[in-house]
Automatic annotation (TrEMBL), chains A, B:
GO terms for molecular function: ATP binding; glycine-tRNA ligase activity; transferase activity. It comes from the Eukaryota. Homodimer. InterPro entries: aa-tRNA-synt_IIb (IPR002314), aa-tRNA-synth_II (IPR006195), aa-tRNA-synth_II/BPL/LPL (IPR045864), Anticodon-bd (IPR004154), Anticodon-bd_dom_sf (IPR036621), Gly-tRNA_synthase/POLG2 (IPR027031), GlyRS-like_core (IPR033731), tRNA-synt_gly (IPR002315). This is glycine--tRNA ligase. Keywords: Aminoacyl-tRNA synthetase, ATP-binding, Cytoplasm, Ligase, Nucleotide-binding, Protein biosynthesis, Transferase. It is found in: Cytoplasm.
Amino acid sequence: MATGEVAMSREETEAFKVLVKNTLERRLFYIPSYKIYGGVAGFYDYGPWGCQVETNVLNLWRQHFVMEEDMWEIRCPCVTPEVVLKASGHVDKFTDLMVKDEKLGSCFRADHLLKDFLTKALEEFEEIKREREAAPGVAAQVVVEKKDKKKVAEKKRELLTPEKKREMQADLAGLDEFSGPELGAKIKAYGIKSPESGNDLSDPYPFNLMFSTQIGPTGTLQGYMRPETAQGIFVNFRDLYYESGNRLPFAAAQIGSAYRNEIAPRQGPMRVREFTMAEIEHFVNPDDKSHPKFKNVADLEIYLFPRAEQTALESHVKMRIGDAVEKGIVDNETLGYFIARTYLFLTKLGINKNRLRFRQHLANEMAHYAQDCWDAEIECSYGWFECVGCADRSAYDLKAHTAKSGHELTAYEKFDEPKDEMKLTIVPNKKVLGKEFRKDQKILSESLEAMTREEALALKAELEEKEKVTYKVCTTGQEFQLTKDMVAISEKLEKSHGRNFTPSVIEPSFGIGRIMYCLYEHCFYTRPAVPGEPTTTVFRFPPIVAPVKCTVFPLMQREVLNAKAKKMSNGLTRAGVSNKLDITGRSIGKRYARTDEVGIPFAITVDFDEGVTVRERDSKQQVRISDVDVVDLVRDLANGSMVWEDVTAKYKLVTVTESEADS
Amino acid sequence: MATGEVAMSREETEAFKVLVKNTLERRLFYIPSYKIYGGVAGFYDYGPWGCQVETNVLNLWRQHFVMEEDMWEIRCPCVTPEVVLKASGHVDKFTDLMVKDEKLGSCFRADHLLKDFLTKALEEFEEIKREREAAPGVAAQVVVEKKDKKKVAEKKRELLTPEKKREMQADLAGLDEFSGPELGAKIKAYGIKSPESGNDLSDPYPFNLMFSTQIGPTGTLQGYMRPETAQGIFVNFRDLYYESGNRLPFAAAQIGSAYRNEIAPRQGPMRVREFTMAEIEHFVNPDDKSHPKFKNVADLEIYLFPRAEQTALESHVKMRIGDAVEKGIVDNETLGYFIARTYLFLTKLGINKNRLRFRQHLANEMAHYAQDCWDAEIECSYGWFECVGCADRSAYDLKAHTAKSGHELTAYEKFDEPKDEMKLTIVPNKKVLGKEFRKDQKILSESLEAMTREEALALKAELEEKEKVTYKVCTTGQEFQLTKDMVAISEKLEKSHGRNFTPSVIEPSFGIGRIMYCLYEHCFYTRPAVPGEPTTTVFRFPPIVAPVKCTVFPLMQREVLNAKAKKMSNGLTRAGVSNKLDITGRSIGKRYARTDEVGIPFAITVDFDEGVTVRERDSKQQVRISDVDVVDLVRDLANGSMVWEDVTAKYKLVTVTESEADS
C-alpha cells in the first residue's frame, strides 16, 4: 500500500522508516561505509542500485538544467586553500555549537540536546495529561508504575504547569536563534546532562564543520575539503563571463562532492559527512532580474510556505508562481523561475508533489546579504527536510572574493544612451612636489589622487582662497604645506557610455543524496502477498530514474533459453538500455519480486516460442511482442518517449498470473 | 598539421606542448585552480569544455565496461578511516622520498633532484662533445663564453671521462631502485644542492602522500582522503558477492576522486593532487583465470613492451594478444582480455593506437604479491606516461582486509564431485579442564583448538605415551600439566563437498585525467591560415567524446535568424544533442574557427532560405539539408551510428568557401 498522503501516526512512521531502511540496505542501495570495520557515522556507500539511481538523477539534472538552460558546467577540486574559504566566510562562520561530556569527552550538538530534551518532556506531559483525563487521580500512579521510578514521575508531574509548558514550547520554537551563552544557560536551567553517561556538560562552543588538511609537505599551506561547490564557480567568474561573450545573465553549474564534518550525525542518509551537491550560480544584473522564460512556468501551482504563513503558524498554501512573484511574495522573476524549474525537476524524478513545498527563510534565518531565500522541503519519515535551497545571494560572494583577491569580479554594462556624468580629475604636479618634498612626493601624490570627491573639492576651494594649505596624509600622519600650483583639481561633465558593476547571484543548490532518499520513500510501497509467498515491496521509480530499465529472464533453466536471454540482453545493451540478466533459476514469481524490490520497471521473459513477454512492474500487466520489436519498445519506455498505456493500447494483454507462470 | 607519428625534436616537442597548453587554458579546458589567489600547484579546474569531455569519457567508460561487461558500479566516500588504509598498506608504504632545503624548508622529491641533475649533466657532456668534434680545442672556450662562467664549464669538462659518464648513466637507469640512504649518498656524492637557493639538503626521508584529516570533533578518529577507489570495493566484497548470486567471476567498478599529496607536482595536468579514477576489481577463482569472451579479442594486435624487451633495451613490439597469452608473456586470459578491452576503449576515445603500448612491470617494480602487471602507456609531450594499470593482484587485498577486520572475505566453491579430505577434530573437555584450572580453562581451551595439525598430532602422541604432558599457551606463556582425558584429538577421512577460498583480483585502474590530457594532444592539429586570418588550431575529437556535438549559427545578425537558430538549438536539445548557440555576430569564419578550436564536430548555419547548412569540422565540407531532417542526422552522427561519409554519400556538397560565406 502506498504511503502517499495518508497521515501516519508516529509509530507507523517509524515502522515505515525501518521497513524502507531494511529494504534499501538489504538490496544494497546503501551500505554503511566500512561496515566490516564497524562503520563510521555519517558515511554511506551507494551499492549497485543506489549508484545507478544517482547516475540517473545527475544525468536528468544535467539535461534539465545544464542543457535546457544552456549553462556552463565546470568541475573544481574539493581540496581548497584557506584563503578562498576565509573570503567566503566559512573559516569564521561554518560552525555548530558543541558541548562536551566533561569526563568522557564525547561531543554533542548543543541545540540537538536541548531539542531532544524539550520534545521528550512535552510528549510525556501530554501522555500524563491524557491518562489523567481518562482516569483522574490514577494517572500519576499509572505513570509511576510504568516507569518504575516514582521520583522521576513525581518530578515530571510537578513540572506540568501551564507556565512551564509555555516556556518549553517557546524555547523549542526559538531554538535556532539562541546564541552560545543562551543555549548554555538553558541547558543548565533544565539540568540537561550527557545522554550517554549522565555526566556534566561543558559550555557550548563553536566547532568548525570543515574537514581540515594540509596541502603539500611543508605544513604551511592550510586547506579544507570544500563545504559546497559554489566557491569554485565564484573564483572563476571572470573567465566564465568572458567565455559567455561578456554578457549577462549567464549561469554556471557544478556537480560534485562536498563535506561537512558533522558533530554527531544521525537521521541516517539525510545527514551525512560527505555528499553530492549540484549547484547553479546564475549571474544577473541586479537592476534587471526579469527572466525571458518566466512566462512558460508562471501558471504552475506550487505549495509555498511564505514568511507570513510561518509566523502566523499557518500552513503552506498552493499558489500560482506567477501570482507569488507579482504580489512580491517571491522577490523576482529569476528566483521564481528557478523555484518552478526545481519543482518540475523534482516531480519528474518521482517526488510526490503534495509532499513538496517551498519554504521562505524567515528574516532572522537568512544571511544578512541575502535578498530572498526559499528551501525546497520534502516530507519524509524524518519530517519536512530541506533538499534544495534557492537563494538570491545578491552580490555578496563576488564582492568578498574581489576584496580578498584584489581581482575585480565585475561585469560591464553599456548604456543604451550615453549618460552625462560629473567626472573628477586630480592631477598632482609631480615635478613641483618632487622639488619641494623629495622622497615624500610619491606618497603625497598617491594620497592626493585617492581623495574622495568631497575632500578634493574642499581642498580646491581652500587652495584658491589661501596661499598655503596644510595637508595631512592620513596613512602616515605626515603634514605638508601645499600651494595652488602643486595639484590641479577639476570637475566636468562627461559622456559615460557604460559602467562596471558586481552582478547578483541567484543560487539553486541541490542536495542530491537527500533528494534520493526522499525519492526512495515516495516510491516505496508494499504489495499484498501472493499465496505462499511473503509480502513484497516495490519501488515505483519512473523509468527515467530506475536503476536499470529492464530485467531479462529465461522462463526456466535451459541452456537454449539462457542463450536466448543472453542474446536479448546484449541487444538491449547495444541499444543503450541498461538491463540485468537473471539466470539464477529461481521461480519466475521470485525473480519478479526481486526486480520489483529494486524498482526495475520492465521484465522480458523468453521462452520456447517466438516472441517474448514484457511485464510492467506496477500493473503486473504482460504483453506478448516479437523479439525484433521489443528492444525499441523498451528503449522508448525507458527514455520516456512512450508510456505503458501506449503499449497496452497497441498489444493485447496476456492473462497469465505470476504464480501460474511458475507451474 | 598533425603531430601524429612524426618524430619531433626536443625543441619542437616543447613548442608543441606550449601551444596545446595555451589553447587548453585560453578556451578553458583547464583553469589553474584558485587562479585569482595565485593558484595552488597540482590542482586544475575543468572549465566548460574540459568538464564536458570528462563527462563524455566517463559515460563511454560506463557503457564500455560497466554495461557491456555487466559489472556492479558502486560509489564510496573519499574520507577513509585509518584502519582501512592501514590494512591496505597505504599508511605504511604510500610514500615518496623527500629532501628539505635545510635553511628555507622547501621540499623536493629526492629522486627527481637526482634525475634532473644527471639528465642535465649528461646532456651538457654531449653538447661539449659535439662542439669539440666540430672544432677541436675551441669547444671548451665556446661553452665558457656561453655560460659566462669559466669555472662551471671547467668543472664539467673535467667530469667528462668515459667512466664518469657510464656511472651517471647507470645511476639514471637505476633511479627507481635506490633506497633512501642510497639516494642520500648519491645526492651528497654529486654535490647536489637546493635548486632554489643552493643551500644544503637534508637526508632523504619518506613522506606519506595521503591528505590527512580528522573525522568528527573528538580528534580521536584519524582519516585520510583515499589514494585510490579500490579499497571501497574490497571492503564490500561480501555483499557484492552475495548480490552476484554467490558466483565467480564477477566485477565491481568505481568512478570517483582520489588524492595524492604530491611533494612538488610538475608535469602540469599529468601529475595532480586530486584526480578522477575509474577502477575495476574483477574477482576470479585463482585456479581458473580463463575468460569466456577472450576469443572475441584474441586477434587484436597491440603494442606490448614485455619484460624481456625492456631488459634487453629493445623496443615495444606489435603482438596478437592471443599469442601473448598463449606464450605466457601475459599471465592469463582474464588479464589479457582486460588489456584488449582497455586498448579498444582508448582507441575509441581517439587515442592514437601507434602511441599506445602496454608495458609489463619489471620483477623488482611489481608489488611482491602481484602475479603480473601491465601499464597502458600513452606517448605525449611528457614522454611515455602510465595512464592505466592492469594488474593481477592475486588474493592480497581481500586477505589483508580479512586479517585486519576479522571478517572472512572468501568465496565458496562446490566441487563437481565430493572429495575425500582428512579432517582434524580437537575437542577440549571443558568440564575436566574447568575443575582443574578454573578461570584459565577458557584461554587453555582456545589455545588447544587453535593448534595446527602438526602440533595437535604431536600432542596426541605424547598424551598416549606419558601420563602428564606440559603444555604451554604461547600467547601468555602459561604452562599447564595435561592428561589424556582433558582433550580429544582425532583425525578422519571425510567427504568434502566444497571449499572456501580467497578470490584473486584482476584490477584495471584508469587515470581519467591523464587519458584526457593525452587525448587532447593526440587530437590537436594546426590548420594553415585562411588569408587575412591567423593560423587556427583544431581538436579532431571523435564525435562521441567532443565536448558538445554541434554549434548553431545564424548566418548574420538578424532578429529573424536568431529566432530560427534558437528554435533549431531547442530542437537539438530536446533530442538530447548537446549544442551551443552562437549569436555573437562574429564573422562566420571566426565562429567556425572558435568551434574548431574546442573540437565541436558539426556546425549548423541557418539563413533566409529553406533548409540549413551542416559543416563538418575536419574536412570543412558542407551539405544542405532540410531543417526537419537535420536533428536526426546530427544525433546519429553524434552517437556514432552514422559517419560523415554516409552524409556526403547522400547529400550533395555545397561549394562555399568559408571566407566567401562572410561576404
